């Protein structure tokens, strides 16, 4: 393959180097475009054709349904690793030794106490507040309680900051849910594993012992692993771009949470369940809603179907479908909403519109189903996504700072009015 790409504008040729990634992805390096062409820029709404960075964290190939963290396949990680190992892998680049993992676990626990004053902030939110708004605010508030900015060139300081956010974030998640459910706020149990502790913090009742269910622990562990990173998606790009202004890690992650909230991104898992409920309320006619999804005059979309990059199948959905079946069988769940979900999935998989556009159930289609059967309120689903995505956001922020990336500042093509004279108010 040639090493350059040639661009011709007004008969003048400009050469740009090609960059080839370790998986042979090719990019045209246009860093000098504006300088050599006298200000010509590119336009790419939604960044469908734009690489924002070079990254060594996650590889995904949407056509072939491949997802790998630091070179390890998502299938193998979901089967053989636990969430904390995967978090370490994403953030620090290699799988931990037992000693490193034990230390990471202990250091996270050490940092997992949240300032008690945070409870006052939680109390000030109305019970009706959306948990994603609460979580984003609380994560941002962590900055106020931990004001010293991290020296990103110091491995020790970075490590401590990583442990802080990994330790405190699950507490904020659990408290957000407990506030919603009217339960007293607790600090969990540091003798438990990371995921077991999350479940206990979320579900324990003040008047009885909490019993762990291994199938639920395993399903949540898998869900968190599958959500842990997904390269330059909307929330991760947000975290990187906010951090590129040298904004702190907690505040950058708070912005990522806001981005994740949207129904076209992480909010899809909530939107899936709301859609299934709406279909049930309407009498359960899945065909009617399939027709609505296909009607170009109707804004309705089948939530949980389709993906910006997976145009074949979502490898995470394949893994999580198995976990969903296990959880449903173990809990003996019988739920008309889940029957509607199954019906929709099988109809879509054989419908010409969906097959032609390669629209398959994505990870959020199944994650919502598991969360519902676990007893997690629908509004908390995207919060659970954020819990899983945390290591990815940290890893991407850390990489962006370590690579000394410039501040993110896209260009535009102005299409507004040309210079005109100001009219005083009485002449308008
Ligand atoms: N239902 C019906 N039609 C759809 C859907 C859907 N869910 N998704 C895409 N289409 C159609 C779309 O109308 C278009 O049709 P046409 O070519 O005739 O104009 C075609 O498929 C391509 O769609 P697109 O909007 O160009 O695709 P995109 O890559 O811009 O959007 C998406 C990807 C995920 C935003 C979209 O598929 C969608 O809105 N899905 C529902 C929301 C959802 O489940 N999101 C979660 C994504 S997974 C979590 C994450 O990683 O963030």
Helices and strands in order:
Blueprint: E1 4-9, E2 12-20, E3 26-28, H1 33-37, E4 58-61, E5 66-69, E6 72-73, H2 74-80, H3 83-92, H4 98-110, H5 118-124, H6 131-145, H7 155-181, H8 194-203, H9 214-227, H10 234-243, H11 249-261, H12 268-281, H13 286-294, H14 315-331, H15 336-349, H16 352-356, H17 363-374, H18 381-402
Helix pairs in contact: 2-9, 3-18, 4-7, 6-7, 6-11, 7-8, 7-18, 9-14, 9-17, 9-18, 10-11, 10-18, 11-18, 12-15, 12-17, 14-17
Carboxymethyl coenzyme *A (CMC) is lined by residues 230, 233, 264-266, 268, 293, 301-308, 357, 359, 362-364.
Shape: globular
The succession of helices and strands, N to C, reads: EEEHEEEHHHHHHHHHHHHHHHHH
Spatial ordering of strands, largest sheet: 1-2-3
In terms of per-residue confidence, which ranges show pLDDT below 50 for 5 or more consecutive residues?
A: none
Helicity level = 40-55%
Give the names of the bound compounds: carboxymethyl coenzyme *A
In angstroms, what is the radius of gyration? 23 Å
**Termini separation:** 60 Å
Query: Strand portion, in percent?
Result: 5-15%
Q: Write down the overall mean pLDDT.
A: 93
Structural class: mainly alpha
**Largest sheet, strands/sense/barrel:** 3 strands, antiparallel
Task: Explain how this protein is built.
This protein has 428 residues and is mostly helical. The chain is built from 18 helices and six strands. The protein has helices at 33-37, 74-80, 83-92, 98-110, 118-124, 131-145, 155-181, 194-203, 214-227, 234-243, 249-261, 268-281, 286-294, 315-331, 336-349, 352-356, 363-374, 381-402, and strands at residues 4-9, 12-20, 26-28, 58-61, 66-69, 72-73. A three-stranded antiparallel β-sheet has the order 1-2-3. Helix 6 runs antiparallel to helix 11 (249-261) and helix 12 crosses helix 17. The protein is globular. Bound molecules: carboxymethyl coenzyme *A (CMC). Carboxymethyl coenzyme *A is lined by residues 230, 233, 264-266, 268, 293, 301-308, 357, 359, 362-364.
């Amino acid at each position: 393959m040639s090493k350059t790409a040639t661009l011709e504008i007004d008969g003048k040729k400009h050469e740009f180097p090609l960059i080839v990634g370790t998986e042979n992805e090719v990019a045209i390096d246009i860093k000098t475009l504006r300088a050599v062409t006298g200000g010509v820029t590119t336009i790419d709404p939604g960044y469908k054709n734009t690489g924002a960075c070079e990254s060594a964290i996650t590889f995904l190939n949407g056509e072939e349904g491949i997802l790998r963290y630091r070179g390890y396949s998502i299938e193998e990680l979901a089967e053989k690793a636990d969430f904390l190992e995967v978090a370490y892998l994403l953030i620090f680049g290699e799988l931990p030794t037992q000693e490193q993992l034990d230390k990471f676990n202990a250091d996270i626990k050490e940092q997992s106490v949240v300032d008690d004053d945070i409870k006052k902030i939680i109390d000030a939110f109305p019970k009706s507040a959306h948990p994603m708004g609460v979580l984003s605010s609380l994560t941002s508030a962590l900055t106020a309680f931990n004001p010293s900015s991290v020296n990103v060139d110091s491995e020790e300081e970075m490590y401590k900051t990583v442990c802080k956010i990994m330790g405190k974030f699950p507490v904020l998640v659990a408290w957000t849910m407990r506030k919603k459910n009217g339960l007293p706020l607790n600090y969990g149990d540091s003798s438990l594993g990371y995921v077991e502790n999350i479940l206990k913090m979320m579900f324990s009742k003040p008047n009885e012992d909490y019993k762990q269910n291994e199938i639920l622990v395993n399903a949540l562990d898998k869900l968190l692993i599958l959500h842990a990173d997904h390269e330059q998606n909307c929330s991760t790009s947000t975290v990187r771009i906010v951090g590129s202004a040298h904004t702190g890690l907690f505040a950058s992650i708070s912005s990522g949470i806001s981005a994740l909230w949207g129904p076209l991104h992480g909010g899809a898992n909530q939107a899936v369940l709301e859609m299934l409920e709406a279909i049930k309320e309407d009498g359960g006619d899945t065909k009617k809603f399939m027709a609505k999804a296909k009607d170009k005059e109707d804004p309705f979309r089948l939530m949980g179907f389709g993906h910006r990059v997976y145009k074949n199948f979502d490898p995470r959905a394949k893994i999580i479908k198995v976990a969903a079946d296990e959880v449903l069988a173990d809990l003996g769940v019988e739920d008309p909403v889940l029957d509607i979900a199954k019906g929709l999935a099988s109809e879509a998989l054989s419908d010409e519109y969906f097959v032609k556009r390669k629209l398959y159930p994505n990870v959020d289609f199944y994650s919502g189903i598991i969360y519902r059967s676990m007893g997690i309120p629908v509004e908390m689903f995207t919060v659970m996504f954020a819990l899983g995505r945390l290591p990815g956001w940290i890893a991407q922020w850390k990489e962006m700072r370590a690579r000394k990336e410039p501040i993110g500042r896209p260009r535009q093509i102005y299409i507004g009015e040309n210079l005109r004279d100001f009219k005083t108010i009485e002449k308008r």
